[in-house]
Amino acid sequence: MRVGVLGASGRMGSTVVEAVNGAEDMELAAALDHGDPLEKLTEAGAEAVVDFTLPGAVMGNTEWALKHSVRPVVGVSGFDAERIATVRGWSEETGTAAAVIPNFSIGAVLLMRFAGQAAKYFPSAEIIEAHHPRKIDAPSGTAVHTARMIAQAREGLPEFPDATECDPDHSRGAKVDGVPVHAVRATGYVASQQVWFGGEGERLTLSHDSTDRGSFMPGVLLAVREVMRREGLVVGLDELLD
Amino acid sequence: MRVGVLGASGRMGSTVVEAVNGAEDMELAAALDHGDPLEKLTEAGAEAVVDFTLPGAVMGNTEWALKHSVRPVVGVSGFDAERIATVRGWSEETGTAAAVIPNFSIGAVLLMRFAGQAAKYFPSAEIIEAHHPRKIDAPSGTAVHTARMIAQAREGLPEFPDATECDPDHSRGAKVDGVPVHAVRATGYVASQQVWFGGEGERLTLSHDSTDRGSFMPGVLLAVREVMRREGLVVGLDELLD
Amino acid sequence: MRVGVLGASGRMGSTVVEAVNGAEDMELAAALDHGDPLEKLTEAGAEAVVDFTLPGAVMGNTEWALKHSVRPVVGVSGFDAERIATVRGWSEETGTAAAVIPNFSIGAVLLMRFAGQAAKYFPSAEIIEAHHPRKIDAPSGTAVHTARMIAQAREGLPEFPDATECDPDHSRGAKVDGVPVHAVRATGYVASQQVWFGGEGERLTLSHDSTDRGSFMPGVLLAVREVMRREGLVVGLDELLD
Amino acid sequence: MRVGVLGASGRMGSTVVEAVNGAEDMELAAALDHGDPLEKLTEAGAEAVVDFTLPGAVMGNTEWALKHSVRPVVGVSGFDAERIATVRGWSEETGTAAAVIPNFSIGAVLLMRFAGQAAKYFPSAEIIEAHHPRKIDAPSGTAVHTARMIAQAREGLPEFPDATECDPDHSRGAKVDGVPVHAVRATGYVASQQVWFGGEGERLTLSHDSTDRGSFMPGVLLAVREVMRREGLVVGLDELLD
Questions:
Q1: b/e per residue C122-143 (b: at least 16 CB within 10 A)
Q2: Which of A221, B13, C39, D173 has a beta carbon 3.0–4.6 Å from B8's, enabling a disulfide?
Q3: How far apart are the first and last CA of chain B?
Q4: How high is the mean pLDDT of chain D?
């Protein structure tokens, strides 16, 4: 399959270029940067395009790709329900498959899935995420998403037990749908997440740790392969895992 | 539901008696020990019976229970394929449901399930189990079972990379179906298991830790409830989890 | 050596009674409870006394013991500088040794010591403590003490890097002398603490986990032995470790 | 201070060149490779020289440096007692300080020190080391050294409890001076080590994790600074830490 890359000189984009070049079943059709015309994709026969540009550019790119039968795999962050609905509309209209993937780490996505499956069996659950200290927001989007999945899986069950009366300096974490989330910011960490489940006399701890953005590439290649053999819009890597 | 307990004065049995007494939807029908006649179960109206006796007693107990329409939940260890086939035969013959559960820890069973689901996405996987130092065999049955699940899920994939040429004192663990298993025996541990998955620039670590046999009780109660509303033979807690 | 126990029917006190009975070099002289006269200690020939009573009783007990040449080992919590000064005065006046020990866990005390030693070599450090969900205050006293030791060891060094601008729900932990402290409250935990140090391309993680109050007994026995062969007042288990 | 680097185009050497260039109190005097004459060091006014060449070259380099009053900091591996004695002789003869450092990771060296300090307080201890799967020997030199420190600190204490009778496939690890050492080889790991201490009802776990050779640079710079202000031969980073 012939694959284009948008945002090809950025940190993620350049890693994707390498990964596509290294994949036996793919060929790099075109590596485009800010300013390059999208027509180069069709001229080069791109069948799919991986987009790691910016929130301001991605919607235009995606519309163009779908209308020219190039299947977009979108890694740009910040897709809300409205943007997803818009892309779904274009995909249906054009009959061209697309994928919007908020997190390309297969490990992180598996951790979220497992957390959702385990949640109903444990009376207690807390999330600890750790990222590099240059990150400006806390907690991470992945942690918020994981907390929501845990809360959803526990609907109807008793609240977490917690007798804390005195915590003047907020050591008990942010409550996201009732699930405590703690954020660590430390040199030596890239992107890590742990979910601590506790029950009477036992603990189940799920831990994922990314130390390099190379860890996202198996997820990117998986999404490209799947968008080529599916129809319609895929949202999230989880749908693509067995 | 009215529940009997066999082996009721043993360490696990007595904990089960407490758990049944504490469950709102259950009543303790009878707590029997070595020497007590099984007839007490039917006299007391037991609908299900939890068996934590010994390998030499369990088959007789189970046959009797099934033939008297008391649903057995068997926690005695060491059930091979032959014993399972025999119990399945009795269950079909009598039309009475039964459950044989090698591990009642919901957490440990979830960890095994997750390990099986994750295995195909990572090039490397190793198991580290830790138990109290009075355990006479290594590695643990749960670790062996987990290794087999990982190996099965990776069928057809490349072997784990490992350039080790020199390891004269066997530090690389036992290979169970090719999966390295390391056993720790240390004071302060009861029954713990970790699975370490590794991929390019990332790690997924699943960890379960039992510090008390109370941790098995949610699994025992779940098995009792399920054997009451199902038909046929259930083998393993995994079938009973969503 | 002959040892008395005050608060002998409490949870900690009764465990101490067992531990003294099990120690080859000790004899239980007297096990006293609320209401028992302290004279029983001297009548029974107690040389040392372990006090696990309450803040309202401990000062009176300690003064009495010191004035009767019985060496007190005080495990009651909440000793501030004033109380320590008072006990030191009594100890000097009477020439009788004493020990005030805020934390009898050798493992927890070693962890604090190691954290203090490591702190100056790492640009980042955060503390995660986990306790049972019945605890009413957060973070734990041990975590606060550990944070202070880390802050002191890093005096003059740059602050921890942290670009967080947006953390509306307080996921970044309580800052204790500038050190982030996160508190987990979960079933299945008794008293645990982790210190996460991070540096360029590396992490050092120190973790201590108590699952049973039996873990405090080696520290209690050590303190008794040391108070018998030392002079003056000892504050904290750290002074008693090599 | 003016610093030379030998083996400057190797993986470690080139990282040292960067680190020296980035240190405010250092200047890169000369970066030499295989074939370059050592005289360049003295011509460039090097006061110290970091050697990351090979076992076959390092002794000649070190003798030359000491005889020309350039203080060597040796990072080449495989220094036995004989080599150390030889370097010590040259250092004494010439009155020039030198350092032989088997492990430049401050974190790894601290972990070993802490393990040695904790060992006598716990009845059980095991080591788990994890490295990339291209490593050909197991267990790692650091793990062997850590095991020896633990064994030495426990001299005279009871052996680790271990009732294992049946372990046909060697899951219990290599015994190094009686301390079990388990070696994991997995993609995603660079160089990690954990020491698991266990006692009645408690665990102390020390964990160090290197994900990048940049983690060795603080140790290299520390050794250079210390060799400039000390006399005689220093062996090991531990002597240089407070």
A1: bbbbbbbbbbbbebeebbbebb
A2: B13
A3: 22
A4: 96
Fold assignment, C2-100+214-240: Rossmann fold (3.40.50)
Q: Which residue of A has its CA nearest to D215?
A: A188
DSSP three-state, residue B225? helix
CA–chain centroid gap for B126, Å, is 21
Do C142 and C185 touch, CB atoms closer than 8 A? no
Q: Which amino acid is at A167?
A: D
Give contacts of B211 with chain C, Cβ < 8 Å.
Answer: 188, 211-212
ipTM above 0.90, yes or no: yes
Residue B148 pLDDT greater than 90, yes or no? yes
* Annotated catalytic residue C131: yes
Say yes or no to pLDDT of C72 above 90: yes
Cβ separation A202–B217 shorter than 8 A: no
Q: What integer pLDDT is reported at residue B230 of this predicted model?
A: 96
Q: Is the pLDDT assigned to residue A77 strictly greater than 90?
A: no
The domain defined by B106-211 folds into Dihydrodipicolinate Reductase; domain 2 (3.30.360)
- The residues spanned by each domain of chain A are 2-100+214-240, 106-211
Rounded distance between C-alpha atoms, residue B56 and residue D158, angstroms: 37
Q: What pLDDT, on a 0 to 100 scale, did the predictor assign at position B152?
A: 98
Note the pLDDT tens digit of each residue in C166-187. 999 999 999 999 999 999 999 9
pLDDT of A213 higher than 90: no
- Judged against a pLDDT cut of 90, whether residue A98 lies above it is answered with yes
